[in-house]
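Archive entry. Fields below.
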Amino acid sequence: MGGLSEGYNLNRRDVVASLLENRSNLLVVTGLGSPSYDVMAAGDNDNNFYLWGAMGSAAMVGLGIAEAQPDKSVVVITGDGEMLMGFGSLATIALRKPHNLSIVVLNNGHYGETGMQLSHAGYGVKLADVADACGFPHVQTIQDQAGVKTLADSLCAGECLQFADIRIKPENLPRVLPPRDGVYVKNRFRHALGFAPN
Amino acid sequence: MTIQTDWQNEVYPALKSTGIKHLAYVPDAGHSVALRRAHDDDEIQPVVLTTEEEGIGYLAGAWLGGNRGALLMQSSGVGNCINTLALPASARFPLLMVITMRGDWAEFNQWQNPMGQATEDALKLMGVMTWRADRPEDVGKLIRGAGTMAFDGDCTCAVLLGQQLIGEKKWVD
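PREDICTED_STRUCTURE:
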């Protein structure tokens, strides 16, 4: 199976570290697999919610948080495979247009967790074009660290619904595992926003 | 086709009494009254979905942000939700679903039968608690009770509205 490598050069850990460097009160949702490890590697935080399953759900979890917390900025950091499984959610999100939500896809064009099989993105489906066609007011494809830096500055501002396809190198880095206890992570996240457990 | 009977007016007040602010849905004729009322209500955010499992993620996010919500769908949509039900099961998110049945009784379209006949068992296999309403007088109290067990007990709960309640779909006038 031939792979696409042109333009897929960024180091995923550097990308995520840059995105979250000045995160302030940013609320972060991660899609299962490597994006969860990348966000954990950038530093565990009470404002992180890590998905370990329910593939395709990350963007919708982000939408729910953004609607419930309109004064806080929310970013979903997920992979191309996870985003593909929830493609319909781009249409659902575009109808709502929450100003405080950013969807960031770490796109290596492959299913990295399962043996680096090519994904639809790797075969040429342009994720940002899909988000654009759905009606996202701001979409971009990023291939260099300068673009990542500009995106990072806009995440906390939370002024406009946006979608970013960031082209990263297809490689499996050492895993940095976030907590897998969903109840713990859920209650920790809610506690940080001032909500008590039942 | 319009279905309009008294039980339909029970659904929305019962849902609102559970404290929801979000109503995520894939439409069904049986939910048409509740959906219309949700769209007319400034206190409720109605969210139309492309597929039912989107609602599970959405409502988990809403709960993380401090809000309650409910998910409306037809029984065929339950099949779409199966793997995503791992999310409320693993993190014990509250989830309140109201499901209109097809393939349940007096079903004209046999293509609805496989999922309709498996709906309640499939939900139970995924750890969802279920209640069936086949009489109008049960609709409100079952939804309110399911809401209590969802939001006060962090449980995944579904109320099934049977076809004997909904009535036969008229295919030819």
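CURATOR_NOTE: The helical segments of chain B are 8-17, 32-39, 53-64, 75-81, 86-91, 113-125, 136-151, 163-166.
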